[in-house]
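Morning!

This is the sequence you dropped in the shared folder:
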Amino acid sequence: MKNKYLLTIFIIFFTFCFIILFKGLKNPNTYQPEFNQNRVLSDFTSTEFFSDEKIKLSTIVTDEKYYLINIWASWCIPCRKEHKFLIKLQKQEKIKLIGINYKDKFKNAKNFLNDFENPYQIIFKDKNGIVSIELGAYGVPETFLINKNLQIIKKIIGPINPKTYNEIIEIIK
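The structure's back. Tokens below.
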């Protein structure tokens, strides 16, 4: 009798744990913070990748075009996967690509651009990650589609994929 009672409690406990585990596995575990679509990107000054000249973002963002600010690094595997989409976006007339090289060694980043092609009109250095953090980035790759008023139109957390590429194309039409 005592054994049946313990067995019943064990089965109920095991079933309860299994249900909790199963429900937990079905819930997505990716945290995506809330994003205010109408937020204005903070203007920043950083060092240009090739010339080491200090440049302010607002001096680049001047005309009617859209701008895609892409935070990337040579050591970032997802950055390599999204690079083909950046090359395709570079060919669009209505958009300019701005890169922010995140916590990277110059030699490695330069080799990355030589190996995969440079899609950016300008690249900023972000050796310590402060510029990216001030923009509201959580990691690499991360991309902001902005207008001439530095207003964020779309934010992409993670690599650009076929779906987000098509969304960008629809917006800039």
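Headline: The CA atoms of residues 81 and 159 lie 7 Å apart.

More detail when I'm at my desk.
O.
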